[in-house]
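Tokens in:
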């Protein structure tokens, strides 16, 4: 099994993510800086994030992840972004217009057009990929990407928006697989292979 590395940017509930990955018997480490680990190139990096887009962007800069992840992705590395970790894979966000994303996926995150934000709770996924069709996932977000050529699942919450993306070995999930029950654990197991 490939080692799974959680990128710790001091953002989000890493314990629930660690528990979900451990339930899948995946070899797991958590690191704050890329220099703290001797990467072979076979690892699966998981980039979780909760909070503001600018905070994640700044932490990536401060801890040395921006350059590392750009290089990692360009060499075909395996990466899974969750919540703001997915959003940061895009070019930017209207939440913090001056903060830069990684730009791997084209597009920007926009505020949800719904009277009640943040979106908190369960929603049904519309997808025919990765066994996500009609599955329910758990969300906590106020910003999302409306669409992407790499979109693999959508949800409707006042408007339809993209909640999962994939290109090559880079996956992004706006929802929290670690809080999405059996479906979420199975999804994490699948993308961490």
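Residues out:
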């Amino acid at each position: 099994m490939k080692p799974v590395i959680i990128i710790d940017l001091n953002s989000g509930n890493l314990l629930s993510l660690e528990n979900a990955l451990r339930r899948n018997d995946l070899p797991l480490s958590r690191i704050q800086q890329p220099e703290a680990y001797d990467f072979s190139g076979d690892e699966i990096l998981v980039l979780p994030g909760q909070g503001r887009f600018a905070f994640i962007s700044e932490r990536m800069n401060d801890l040395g992840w921006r350059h590392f992840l750009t290089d990692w992705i360009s060499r075909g590395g395996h990466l899974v972004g969750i919540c703001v970790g997915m959003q940061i894979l895009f070019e930017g966000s209207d939440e913090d217009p001056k903060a830069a994303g990684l730009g791997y996926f084209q597009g920007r995150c926009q505020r949800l057009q719904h009277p009640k934000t943040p979106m908190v709770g369960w929603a049904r996924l519309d997808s025919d990929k990765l066994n996500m069709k009609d599955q329910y996932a758990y969300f906590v977000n106020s910003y999302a990407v409306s669409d992407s050529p790499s979109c693999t699942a959508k949800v409707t919450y006042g408007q339809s928006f993209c909640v999962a993306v994939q290109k090559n070995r880079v996956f992004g999930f706006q929802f929290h697989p670690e809080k999405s029950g059996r479906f979420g654990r199975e999804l994490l197991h699948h993308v961490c292979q």
